[in-house]
Amino acid sequence: MSAKRRTEPGSRSAPRRAESSAPPSRRGSSLALRAADKAGEYELVHPPAARARAEDLEEVHQMIDADEIEIAVDELRWLLTGCTDFLEAHQLLGELALADGDARLARAHFGYAFDIGLGALPSDDWSGKLPFRLPGNRSFLTAAKGLAHCLNEIGQPDRGRAVALRLLRFDPSDPLRVTAWIAQLPPEGTVLTVLDEPDDEDDDAESGSCGA
Question: Are 142 and 176 spatial neighbours (Cβ–Cβ below 8 Å)?
Fold first, then answer.
């Protein structure tokens, strides 16, 4: 399969759905919250430009399944040019970078995806739940676990633990087996020596927002 350059997918944009029963985001995130059927549970609503790229993302999954990794990466980067807050694209780029052994680049993509999702929440101490069973939450929660893993890999296990514990608060049912992962971390406060560059976000993780 070869990568194709399609016309801007905004014309396939789904209509906006009402978010009246959900709290507002705290910093104008391009994502929003939608109240779920169960009290206290919410689902992330991704921006129209990201939802309009669902068909393109399915092609990316087909490329990955066919082991066409370089083409998939190129396609994901192209998708981000029209919607830099495309959370699932960052999550997939993080997964591909991690599989390629680049934990710092993976951390940058996972970290940006995590921050996009946090931006949709009304406050840092928000106590609502984001169950993994709701489709809109899956890429965010998966990116959170990826970020925790990468932080541990680059010698920051305490930061990784903090992200993992926050993930557990979002979904205490623990479908991603975060509790078992935390149990394998070194004791809290362990100082690790990392012979690597300083702790700066990788410039390869696109930043910005999504258009309509």
Answer: yes
Tokens linked to 156: 């920051």
What is the distance between the alpha carbons of residues 115 and 170, in angstroms, rounded to a whole number? 14
Cα-based angle 109, 112, 116 (whole degrees, multiple of 5): 140
| Assigned token pair, 75 | 């396609």
- Compute CA distances 183 → 157, 168, 177, 188, whole Å: 12, 13, 10, 11
* pLDDT, tens digit, 9 for 90 and up, residues 140-196: 999 999 999 999 999 999 999 999 999 999 999 999 999 999 999 988 877 665 544
Give the Cα-Cα-Cα angle 114, 116, 118 (nearest 5 degrees): 70
